[in-house]
Each structure stands twice: as structure tokens, then as C-alpha cells.
Design a protein that fits this description.
By secondary structure, the protein is mostly beta strands. The chain has two domains: 2-100, no CATH class; 132-458, Methylamine Dehydrogenase, Chain H (7 Propeller). 14% of the residues lie in helices and 43% in strands. The chain has two helices and 31 strands. It has helices spanning 2-60, 103-107; strands spanning 65-72, 76-84, 88-96, 132-138, 147-153, 156-161, 171-175, 183-188, 193-200, 203-209, 215-222, 225-232, 246-252, 255-260, 268-272, 280-285, 291-297, 300-305, 311-315, 323-328, 338-344, 347-352, 365-368, 383-385, 391-396, 400-405, 412-416, 425-427, 433-439, 442-447, 452-458. The strands form eight sheets. A four-stranded antiparallel sheet has the order 4-31-30-29, with no helix packed on it. Strands 5-6-7-8 form a four-stranded antiparallel sheet, with no helix packed on it. A hairpin with a 5-residue loop joins strand 18 (300-305) and strand 19 (311-315). The chain is globular and about 70 Å long. The protein starts with a helix and ends with a strand.
Length: 459
């Protein structure tokens, strides 16, 4: 009987404990549900008040609604809206930079405005640590292929190469959502290799390593379907001119900005692709050297070049007449090349190669506080730093600048915007990086000498 009473007593205590836990869970859930309801109710009230203010303004021809906009992230606009009448309603909205050219949003990766905080579409900031995780993802492609460029969109990698074997594919679409078992969804061999490419909507615009046609337009009706839609050959300045090969590319507002290696024609060309079946060159600028990278924003092109003027600022507001407005010629230009250009919320970042050996006074990474149409400050960067090995990729957010470098044992580096070495973080990779991109709250580095992508996540 004592044993039975003991068992019964334990059962009772256990039941009471479970009941207490259940009550606590229900209570906590109820509080959480109540908070959600209160916030939703508050939001609904604010929207009703805003609608009332706008409706009243339409009937009275008054203008009680004011707004101000600024750059948000790498390709969006943040707008503060304030509506005032008997009460004041204010809120923030984030939209595509140019809703009339929505494909531009696809041509530029949509990335976090703060990777450590994983802040993608709002201004909410949460506590974070400086811990990161780097995971290598082996690509199921020929390890001998010389990879040239890549982009990542929602777990899908687009990777180009420039193989010396004519039968090799030069563009792959790879699903790596299962990091242990990536799968090639499709590939295409356009003939020559691809030096760089831009994704815009259902099309991939490629700078082809070909003298026969420097621009290849690839149609992508699905991730499993790639088809060469058209090719375009740059018009030579005279009949016997030796044609160049494509080296860099950027898409913006139905136009391709194509860079080539040095030749007797324009190394920087503006091509109208509003009709992808019939591209037309509408303007160009001769730089006299290879164009390694192009970034376009709001009527200006930032061109990373391989000559003395390693960073050019080109006014492209008149597409038929690109005009060089300013340039940056840092010391060491005889050995080093302009390699990467990046912009974030108006700030401008520029990286270049080391030239084979390092001189500490010849810096490789530069940052300007903000871009302006005059660019009078282009000769005086706000910050700069020596990066032995050179800079091969740049991504910035509100707190940091992220670099893919060829500095041994420091292939991935993180700086604050002052490029201070005292707060810098460095991580070793077993390969030399080819380039760096972002997608959502992750960064990705493409290896130059192996079919590997390194995914960088922030804890």
C-alpha cells in the first residue's frame, strides 16, 4: 500500500507540474497574441487616419502630406511620409529605386543593409556578435574551368567561365539550397567564354571573350532553360581595326554598359537593348585601356580601368555622348589596375590589384563618403588602406566594408567605414578569390582556381 501511495503521490505532483507549465505557456502565448493584436489594431487605426487625411486633402485641394526620400541599401529608395491634419501620421516605406524599370531590381543583388543585424527591409536593429560562419560549397562542374564571374539569387548560383576548350559550357545555373548536394539546373555554350555578366529579368547579358561578338544575350525562360537569343558585335572605328573582347558589363534602364580590352575603338560602350533581338550601340567613350568593372547609378558610370585614370566618372545622362567628368589616379598605377567599384547609399568604394608586389604607400582599397554629380572630391578619398595582394571584390553595408582579397591568410576582410585596422576582422580561405557578391543576408565568394563558392553568414 505504501508503494501505491508513493506512486500516486508522484503522479499527482507530476500532473500539477505539467498543469503549471501548461498554464504558463498558455499565459505567455496569450500575452504574445495580445501584443500582436494590439499592434495590428494600432496599425489599422493609423492607416484609417492616413486614408482620412488623404481623402480630405483631395476634397479641399490642400496638401497635408509631405515626404522626403533617400538612398536605402544598394538598390532601393527609403521614403519618410508625414501626413498632418487634426493628428499627425508618419511612416516609412521602401521601394525599388525606379519602379518604371523594375528589371533593374533584378540586375542588382537585393542585399541586407546591415549583414550583422540581418536588416533587409526595415530599420530595426538587434544586438549581434561579430561571429561569422564560412561554408564551402563545391560546385558540380569541371574543376579545370577558369571561373570568371557569378551572381547568387535565392539559393541559385549563376557562374560563368572562359574555357579554352570550345565544347565547354560557359554559363551554369546551379541550385545549391542543399549545400551538400548542389545540382546543375542548366548550362549553355555560347561559343567563346564569358568574362562577366548581368542578370535582368529573364535575360542574362554577357560580356563575351570574343572578337566576333562582344555582347551575348541569353534568354532564361526558366532555371532549366537557357537559350542564346542574340549576339552583338561592336562597330569598328575603321575597316581594318582589330576587334576587342568583352571584359565587363552593367545593365541599367534597358541599356547595357559594356567594357572591353584596349583597342582602337571605344572601350566603354552604351548599347540600347530595349529590343533584345536587335541591340544598337548609341554611344561610347575611348579610355585607351581595359575596362575591368562598371557600376552605374543615376546618370553616372563609375569605371574601374587599368591605366593611369584607374577610376573614371562618366556622365551618361546623354547616352549618345558619354562625358568624362573626373578621374582618380592613385600612386602605383604603372603596376596596379582598377579592379572593383561598388556603391552603397551614396558612398563609393573602389579596389585595385597590387601589381605583383606590394608597396605599402600604394593603397588598394579606397572609400569616398558620398557621390555627387561634380565628383570634385574624387581625388581625395575619405579613407584608404594598403591591402597586399589586391582587392577583387567589395560589398558595403551601413556599418562595414567587406573585401575579397588576395592577401595570404586574409582572403576575406571586414572593416568599418573608416578602414581602421584596429577594428578589422580577417579570415583565411584556402583559395584566391575571384569576386564577391551578396544575396539577402549572406555574402558569397567565388574561388578563382577551384569550383567552390564560400557562403558567409553572420551569427
Amino acid at each position: 500500500m505504501k508503494t501505491n501511495r508513493g506512486i500516486i503521490l508522484v503522479d499527482i505532483l507530476l500532473a500539477l507540474s505539467l498543469a503549471a507549465m501548461f498554464t504558463a505557456i498558455v499565459t505567455e502565448s496569450s500575452v504574445g497574441a495580445r501584443q500582436v493584436f494590439d499592434k495590428a489594431n494600432e496599425r489599422a487605426g493609423s492607416l484609417d487616419a492616413y486614408e482620412s487625411i488623404v481623402t480630405n486633402s483631395l476634397s479641399t485641394s490642400s496638401s497635408p502630406v509631405a515626404s522626403s526620400s533617400r538612398l536605402y541599401g544598394n538598390d532601393r529608395i527609403e521614403t519618410d511620409i508625414i501626413a498632418s491634419s487634426s493628428q499627425q501620421i508618419s511612416f516609412m516605406q521602401v521601394n525599388a529605386r525606379d519602379p518604371l524599370h523594375i528589371a533593374d531590381s533584378a540586375s542588382t543583388p537585393l542585399c541586407s543593409v546591415d549583414f550583422f543585424d540581418k536588416d533587409l527591409v526595415g530599420s530595426y536593429l538587434s544586438p549581434h556578435s561579430n561571429a561569422i560562419t564560412i561554408i564551402p560549397i563545391m560546385l558540380p562542374i569541371n574543376p579545370l574551368l577558369p571561373l570568371t564571374d557569378f551572381q547568387v539569387r535565392n539559393g541559385i548560383a549563376y557562374v560563368s567561365d572562359d574555357s579554352s576548350t570550345a565544347s565547354d559550357p560557359d554559363l551554369f545555373v546551379i541550385d545549391f539550397k542543399d549545400k551538400n548536394n548542389p545540382k546543375v539546373l542548366s548550362s549553355i555554350n555560347t561559343g567563346p567564354g564569358i568574362a562577366a555578366f548581368a542578370i535582368a529579368g529573364i535575360r542574362i547579358y554577357a560580356a563575351a571573350a570574343s572578337v566576333a561578338a562582344q555582347l551575348h544575350i541569353i534568354r532564361m525562360d526558366s532555371l532549366n532553360s537557357l537559350a542564346l537569343e542574340s549576339k552583338y558585335k561592336l562597330p569598328p572605328p575603321y575597316a581594318t581595326a582589330t576587334e576587342p573582347i568583352g571584359s565587363s558589363i552593367f545593365f541599367d534602364k534597358d541599356k547595357i554598359y559594356l567594357g572591353t580590352e584596349k583597342w582602337d575603338g571605344d572601350e566603354f560602350s552604351v548599347i540600347d537593348v530595349s529590343n533584345p533581338l536587335s541591340p544598337i550601340k548609341i554611344g561610347g567613350l575611348e579610355t585607351g585601356s581595359k575596362v575591368n568593372n562598371i557600376f552605374v547609378r543615376d546618370g553616372f558610370a563609375y569605371v574601374a580601368d587599368s591605366d593611369e585614370k584607374q577610376l573614371r566618372i562618366v556622365d551618361i545622362s546623354q547616352s549618345s555622348m558619354p562625358i568624362l567628368t573626373d578621374s582618380f589616379s592613385p600612386s602605383g598605377w604603372l603596376r596596379q589596375e582598377g579592379k572593383r567599384v561598388s556603391s552603397f547609399e551614396g558612398a563609393l568604394d573602389f579596389g585595385r590589384t597590387s601589381g605583383g608586389y606590394n608597396i605599402t604607400s600604394d593603397y588598394e582599397a579606397f572609400e569616398w563618403a558620398a557621390a555627387s554629380p561634380s565628383f570634385s572630391m574624387i581625388t581625395s578619398p575619405r579613407h584608404s588602406i594598403d591591402i597586399p595582394g589586391g582587392v577583387y571584390g567589395i560589398v558595403a553595408d551601413r556599418s562595414h566594408i567587406y573585401l575579397a582579397t588576395r592577401q595570404v591568410n586574409k582572403e576575406f576582410q571586414i572593416f568599418d567605414h573608416s578602414l581602421s585596422t584596429t577594428t578589422a576582422l580577417a579570415y583565411s580561405l584556402p583559395v584566391a578569390p575571384q569576386t564577391l557578391t551578396c544575396d539577402g543576408d549572406h555574402l558569397y565568394i567565388l574561388a578563382a582556381t577551384a569550383p567552390v563558392i564560400y557562403e558567409i553568414s553572420f551569427n
